[in-house]
Amino acid sequence: MMNIVRLDAPIVVGAGVAGLSVALGLDRAFVISSKDPGSTWWAQGGIAAALSDDDSPQAHAADTVAVSGGLAVDDAVAALTIGGPEAIARLIQMGAEFDRDDDGALLLGREGGHHARRVVHADGDATGAEVMRALNDAVVNSHSVDVIDGRVVDLARSADRVVGVLTADGKKRTIYLAPAVVMATGGAGRMYAHTTNPVGVTGEGIMMAARAGARLADLEFVQFHPTAMRAGKDPMPLLTEALRGEGAKLVDGAGRRFMDQYHPMAELAPRDIVARAIFWQYDRGSTAFLDARSIMNFHERFPTVTAHAMSVGLDPVDDLLPVSPAAHYYMGGIDSDTYGRTSVPGLWAVGECSSTGVHGANRLASNSLLEGLVFGARVAVDVGGRMEMPTGDIEVPKEGLDLPVVAGPAIEELRQLMWDRVGLIRTGDGLWQARNSLLEMERVLGRTIAGRNAADLALLMVMAALRRSESRGGHYRADYPDEDPMQAMRALVVPGAVDAVKVG
Q1: Is 472 a catalytic residue?
Q2: Rounded to an integer, what distance in angstroms lies between the CA atom of residue 103 and that of residue 132?
Q3: What is the sign, positive or negative, of the torsion defined by CA atoms of 31, 34, 36, 39?
Q4: What is the pTM of this model?
Q5: Within a domain: residue 392?
Q6: First-to-last CA distance in the chain?
Q7: Same structural domain, 293 and 320
Q8: What does the pLDDT read at residue 436?
Q9: Best label site of 266, 462, 475, 503, fewest CB within 10 Å?
């Protein structure tokens, strides 16, 4: 069964911080979102912005560039850091409540890679939930944003332009046509066996854009958070970086600190360095724990971490917390500029599914929520001035009309393979083994839409990692452990054509 619905305003796919920031910046918008909660709700870390008298957007930009592996795009970094204070002010105006001191001033924390205290938090370690509360309240009160429950599975095109989306509800398919489409579908961390990402974060929006002809970028760069709690849970509970900013130390089983062997900033080193250091602890038969016992008023200041720890019988006030790295954030995605424009007319991308180069090869802590807020507002400005109503024949990828949506148990095999071969430490041999295994697994995974997306993106990630024969940021090759100045450039991927059918 096929329905075609014509909408008179842009479609935003995704209802996290990036998507809602776009929708609220438009005069009128339709947000299409599945019931999966997305990553923003889970974000414990804060929002970085230069808010103090002894800080500046330029200093924030310098820290952002310093951890980027030399690949950060200057214009994107400037847009992010200059827009930071205004983004915080906008959230506060919407009603977001951030932590403050006794005098009512915003409490500013420090996290890995930052040389200043510039990170705002809500309820200690529940910033994402508070941001989403404020944004959702604003949507409810706006009267200009309509939210449609639906699972978007592909994009619709007319000639060389994206003109809408294809949704699936069982066997029922609906095409929503609109003057513009914004992808805000999140990252791909769920493609790994060990991850902080909830169900649904498997890069589906990235592959929808690729099938519509959009160029992709930096697919080899995955950020692994250093301190996920080893508790036998999936997703792994995150132990926010703010803990290390407030003095928590990384220690081995004997209580000895080890990070000072790896970087002058020790526990506050960039995330890729801390994550690999913990990985190597386990690789040589040792262990890693976060010792946060020195933090005063821990339960009150970090209630989310407290709840995670106590759910497995640990109390951060008395106990060491077992940690290991986990897939957390994707720097790769849909190639887009600082206004979210992609290589395909009619299609914009924002947030973690996009790749503007703002993070380069490695993201600075607490720049992700900021990215959604700042670039969401910029995308809204651009989309509002570039809308074009659909005309001509409408086409969608053929497989989107026929395949079941949800992936089967084979997706778990893919997740383990990605962790083992395309994780923190990569080698050429391991990547080739991953490629060959994925080609075999594709026969089964390709029987569903979600499985096809995961297999296709995994193969693109593997090939990108093979082509980058160096180590840089979140991409570490044990067989090429050094940076190669000749490879200090972003990597673009132009997808091939897919079979499409006319539907109207």
Answers
A1: no
A2: 26
A3: negative
A4: 0.95
A5: no
A6: 13
A7: yes
A8: 98
A9: 503
